[in-house]
């Protein structure tokens, strides 16, 4: 069913968070702690993604966890002892912050026993997602934007009823770290240079072999046919079941769109990216920004 067909529209309610990776880029911090729990200022990475999902209208979060990831479950669970202590000591703001996390949203978990790739992780969520479109959020891509990135993708999905991935232009020297698309720009919402119709995808191409400089960033809206596509592919780059390869398979029967979203993406799974994100988020904080800026000014750089 190729072509500009507008497919049946369904509200997107569920966001899948693959969180079973080994976090090797951030060792030794991630030896005994999931990388999704690394904290930017005072909130773990995964909470930024969960809040983005909530602000985009999601009502269910599905976290695909692995070994040693129980801190994530505890984080989104009610902490009676902590709440009791904060209540007793009159620390209202902290109490609200802690309660908000568990009140925010309905969170369910599914286990990925082995880290066999992003496609494999998403496939683990098949039963919990069911036959409806859903979002995928990679928590180490932290996106700072006025309109949440997922919301921007959902607006495209609501219009076309098809799968949509987030795109960003990347330097040639960095392109081999990403899924890369070949795509043609299409006019949408008064602009001609943000939305693309994708016609090919390659996971982590070598520099010089990439089909473009448009990289996939960790936000996806996927239609449920993606599950059959993941089941149809064989392991690719790094011997893993790649979501990018499944999207390429899906492209045979369904259109896929890519949106160059508005906002700043931080690769918080990378040490330098994490440091940059920490500085930017700290400077934006009303309680910390002022004194932190003053401190930075004293550094002789
Ligand atoms: C994953 C995807 C890749 C995408 C990237 C975005 O790679 O496989 O297609 O471009 O996320 O962050 P990873 O960073 O897990 O190696």
The number of domains is 2
Low-pLDDT segments: 1-6
The helix tally amounts to 11
Bound molecules: 1-O-phosphono-alpha-D-glucopyranose
N-to-C CA distance? 58 Å
Question: In the CATH hierarchy, what is the architecture of the largest domain at level 2?
Answer: Alpha-Beta Complex
Structural class: alpha/beta
Q: CATH homologous superfamily of the largest domain?
A: Spore Coat Polysaccharide Biosynthesis Protein SpsA, Chain A
Classified by CATH, the class of the largest domain is Alpha Beta
Radius of gyration: 20 Å
According to CATH, the fold-level topology of the largest domain is: Spore Coat Polysaccharide Biosynthesis Protein SpsA, Chain A
Helical proportion, percent range: 25-40%
The overall strand count is 13
Strand content: 25-35%
**SSE string, helices as H and strands as E:** EEEHEHHHEHHEEHEEEEHHEEHH
- As laid out across the biggest beta sheet, the strand order is 5-4-1-6-11-8-12-10-9
- Globally, the shape reads globular
For the report, how would you describe the main beta sheet? 9 strands, mixed
- Overall average residue pLDDT: 92
Keywords:
single chain; binds 1-O-phosphono-alpha-D-glucopyranose; two-stranded antiparallel sheet; disordered N terminus; nine-stranded mixed β-sheet; alpha/beta; 2 domains; globular; 301 residues; 26% strand; Spore Coat Polysaccharide Biosynthesis Protein SpsA, Chain A
């Amino acid at each position: 069913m190729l072509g500009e067909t507008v497919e049946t529209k369904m509200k997107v309610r569920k966001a899948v968070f693959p969180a079973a990776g080994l976090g090797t880029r951030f060792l030794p911090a991630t030896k005994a702690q999931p990388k999704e729990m690394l904290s930017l200022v005072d909130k773990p990475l995964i909470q930024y993604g969960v809040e983005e999902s909530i602000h985009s209208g999601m009502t269910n979060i599905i976290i695909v966890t692995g070994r040693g990831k129980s801190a994530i479950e505890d984080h989104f669970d009610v902490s009676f002892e902590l709440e009791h202590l904060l209540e007793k000591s009159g620390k209202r703001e902290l109490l609200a912050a802690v309660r908000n996390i568990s009140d925010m949203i309905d969170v369910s978990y599914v286990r990925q026993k082995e880290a066999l790739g992003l496609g494999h992780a998403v496939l683990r969520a098949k039963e919990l997602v069911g036959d409806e479109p859903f979002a995928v959020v990679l928590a180490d891509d932290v996106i700072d934007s006025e309109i949440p990135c997922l919301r921007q993708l959902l607006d495209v999905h609501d219009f076309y009823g098809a799968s949509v991935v987030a795109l960003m232009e990347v330097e040639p020297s960095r392109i081999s770290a990403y899924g890369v698309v070949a795509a043609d720009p299409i006019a949408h919402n008064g602009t001609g240079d943000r939305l693309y119709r994708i016609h090919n995808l390659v996971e982590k191409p070598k520099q010089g072999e990439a089909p473009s400089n448009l990289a996939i960033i960790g936000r996806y809206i996927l239609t449920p046919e993606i599950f059959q596509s993941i089941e149809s592919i064989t392991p690719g780059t790094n011997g893993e079941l790649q979501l990018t390869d499944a999207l390429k398979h899906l492209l045979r029967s369904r259109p896929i769109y890519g949106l160059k979203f508005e906002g700043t993406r931080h690769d918080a799974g990378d040490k330098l990216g994490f440091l940059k994100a920490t500085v930017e988020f700290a400077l934006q904080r009303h309680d910390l920004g002022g004194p932190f800026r003053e401190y930075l000014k004293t550094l002789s750089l």
